[in-house]
Amino acid sequence: MRLLVQTKVDSETRVGLVADSGRLWEYHREYQRAGGTLVGNIYLGRVVNVEPAIQAAFIDIGENRTAFLHFADLHPAYDRGESVSLLTLNDSFPRKRGEGLIQDCLRSGQELVVQVSKDAIGQKGPSVSTFVSLPGRSLVLLSGVARPGVSRKIDAENRESLRQVAEKMPSIPGAGVIIRTAGSGIEEVDLIKEVEGLSSEWQQLSQKAEATSAPSKLRSEVDLLRKVSRDLWTSSVSEVIIDDDEMGKQLLADRQRWPHTGDLKMEIYRGKTALFRHRGLESQIDSIYDRNVKLPSGGALVIEETEALVAIDVNSGRDLTASDLENTALQTNLEAAEEVARQIRLRDLGGVIVCDFIDMLETDHKSRLEEAFRACTREDRAKIWYAPLSRFGLLELTRQKLGPSKNRLGRTSCPTCNGRGSVREEHRLAPGLMRELTRGLAENGTQEAIVTVGEGVFDLLKEGRAEEIGDLEQQTGARIILESGKDWSPECWAIRYR
Q1: How many CB atoms lie within 10 A of CB 80?
Q2: Which of 211, 226, 343, 354 sits between 20 and 30 A of 107, alpha carbons compared?
Q3: pTM score > 0.70 for this model?
């Protein structure tokens, strides 16, 4: 893998993780003037209200919208509306996680430390959790963890040796550490130094929470360049290519702060053409927003993102005969497994994801598909939980949200259809408009009604409803004037009475 960092175009930083084949696997960008994501930010919030019906609370964190805290994300330390210190979160508590009722644990006006786990989407505000984490390069500090642990993505042999190292690490009041996959192969002394650094940051966070009043931001997640050195520049990256000398020095210096193995190879790109265009990545970035994704054998993925879940449909792209159905289905599904794994990383799709693969009859083929999909997602930084492939060919999984999806971050709702993806047919709108006009004239008793509609509906009313409009004028004694609204949506209309 190569890590490409472009900083000199359009006042934004762009980062791409590119395979040796030239395929883009991860893409991130950060506008230098934009607020960006809230995910990872830590706040001292205040409970606005507690909703027993949905077992959740709404928290004022000082941003534009109140945040949503589900009972499952409330630490057991919070009980009977009492204040809680971060340094006591790994003590033992009589209440276990998820036990009891939220109305017995929180009260309006109570202050608590929360971390944003999901950005606002649509009508929903950001989601927060009282289980706070501080990520490092090789470790992550987690509140309420009594004993250190090791990432499950590390193979069994290395996991056991790292577990022994973890047991020697200094204890942290209110928190514990988990060794990340990037910690595999790192010297024990370097891991302990990183623990000490995270512990110091945790102590400072606790002191700041005690000294300030809610709502207040306690800690911002680091900028994209820092995330590159911390999260993306892993041992699987053979080279970093960046287009700015000073940024390159800053990135290299920041990366050297963290424990590492092997050489840190960096190239400064000095070409006249923008780095991403020079490397042929622009078309791949544009495809992130496409609904359809082609597969090598002629099949395709159809990706639909909704507020509830992400649905991915696998199509073979051709008619299949009974003799080649099973083998072609397997081939297409295996291609789709790799492309789905790539797309969910590339688009940063999170939450519930349902993949509808082509039906297969042979159990061995189904097992191969599941194994292939898990192998393709092994390098994903986000946590993924899988359900077994269903009898209908559905593979369900949930993926940790690392930030807003690229589709939601880079798009806004269509002003014509308001995000639905379709509008009503014009000839079906006319009857409803005529009913509203008839009712309005009867209730208002006015002498004139000015009806403004989209151009298509205007033509339909003038040509197909002229007689009906004339009859309505005779019945009410009112004059009806039709106007065409320039660039109006077909579903948009207005009636003024005077």
Answers
A1: 10
A2: 211
A3: no
